[in-house]
Structure formats: structure tokens, C-alpha cells
């Protein structure tokens, strides 16, 4: 597979990605895990990875809530269940339990452990200042591994540079 990737890059004169900037806007398990997997995968490939948690994505880095994220059972077409069923009492808890059970089988770390792995590998974790102000959060409410609280302008400044990709999850 690696040979195929290398030949495609050469054939199309593509330059390797140097940095990914991942915007996390959802505070559900199914909203944050794609970002965590992408950031971790980037670090494993030697690519710089920075994560910017904004709006409900902040739930993923608030100390008191980060380990209690759920899967949205209502309005989630990927669950293949009618909205009415997703709204039944206990259904969100059940769906969340099932997803966590499947993740455990694959030895996928929980949110905090995943963030610790990304942080230890050199990845950066940022919180959005506007969202923090809007939800009345302070830096001390956040997981201690958060590097900084940034404005959107600060985030854009960090996006500068050749071969930087911005991903929105």
C-alpha cells in the first residue's frame, strides 16, 4: 500500500501533509472520536496535529464531563432506528453503552486517555475563547492537558504554513 501512495504522490506531484488542524464542534462520542482518531493517526505518521475544541466540542475537554459523553440516539440516521425509538427513555444510554462496549473490544482508549496519548506525542489541544465565554467556562474547568485558550484569529494564525490541512468534524 505504501508503494501505491508514494507512486500517486510522485505521479501527481503532491507534497506531503505537514500539519492537520482539526476543529471539533460536537460533544458526543460519535462526534469527538473521528477527530481523536485523525489527530492520533497524524501523530503516528509524523504529521503535526492540533485540535481546536469549539461550541459543544468543548464537552470533550471539560474535566467534569469528558468521560461521560453519549451517542445521540435521536436524529442519528447511522443508527438505523426510527427517531421515535431513539427518543424512548433509556435508549441513549443503551446506544452509548453498546458503542463503548464495541470500542472496548477493539481496545480503543476512552476520551481522556486518547487526549493524553495525543498530547504526549506532541499534539496540541486548544479551547475556543468565544465558546468558553458563551458557556461561562474558565480555564480551570478544562482538562489539564489543554495547551491554551485561543481566539478564532489565533487559531487561523496557527493554520499558516505550507501543506497544512484544516479538518472540521
Provide an overview of this structure.
The chain is of the alpha/beta class. The chain has 2 domains: 21-67 and 110-169, Hypothetical Protein Ychn, Chain: A; 74-109, no CATH class. Helix content is 40%, strand content 15%. The protein has helices at residues 2-11, 29-44, 83-86, 91-105, 111-120, 129-134, 152-158, and strands spanning 19-24, 48-53, 124-128, 148-150, 164-168. The protein has a 5-stranded parallel beta sheet. Strand 1 (19-24), helix 2 and strand 2 form a beta-alpha-beta unit. It is globular, with a radius of gyration of 18 Å. The protein starts with a helix and ends with a strand.
Secondary structure blueprint with pairings:
Layout: H1 2-11, E1 19-24, H2 29-44, E2 48-53, H3 83-86, H4 91-105, H5 111-120, E3 124-128, H6 129-134, E4 148-150, H7 152-158, E5 164-168
Parallel strand pairs: 1-2, 1-5, 2-3, 3-4
Question: What attributes characterize this protein structure?
Answer:
169 residues, alpha/beta, Hypothetical Protein Ychn, Chain: A, five-stranded parallel sheet, 7 helices, 5 strands, 15% strand
Amino acid at each position: 500500500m505504501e508503494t501505491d501512495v508514494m507512486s500517486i504522490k510522485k505521479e501527481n506531484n503532491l507534497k506531503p501533509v505537514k500539519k492537520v488542524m482539526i476543529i471539533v464542534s460536537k460533544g458526543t462520542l460519535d462526534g469527538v472520536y473521528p477527530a481523536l482518531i485523525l489527530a492520533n493517526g497524524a501523530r503516528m505518521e509524523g504529521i503535526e496535529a492540533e485540535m481546536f475544541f469549539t461550541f459543544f466540542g468543548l464537552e470533550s475537554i471539560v474535566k467534569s464531563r469528558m468521560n461521560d459523553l453519549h451517542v445521540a440516539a435521536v436524529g442519528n440516521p447511522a443508527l438505523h432506528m426510527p427517531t421515535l425509538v431513539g427518543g424512548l427513555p433509556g435508549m441513549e444510554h443503551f446506544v452509548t453503552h453498546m458503542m463503548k462496549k464495541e470500542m472496548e473490544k477493539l481496545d480503543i482508549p476512552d476520551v481522556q486517555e486518547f487526549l493524553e496519548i495525543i498530547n504526549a506525542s506532541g499534539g496540541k489541544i486548544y479551547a475556543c475563547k468565544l465558546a468558553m465565554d458563551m458557556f461561562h467556562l474558565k480555564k480551570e474547568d478544562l482538562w489539564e492537558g489543554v495547551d491554551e485558550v485561543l481566539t478564532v484569529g489565533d487559531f487561523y494564525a496557527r493554520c499558516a504554513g505550507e501543506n497544512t490541512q484544516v479538518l472540521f468534524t
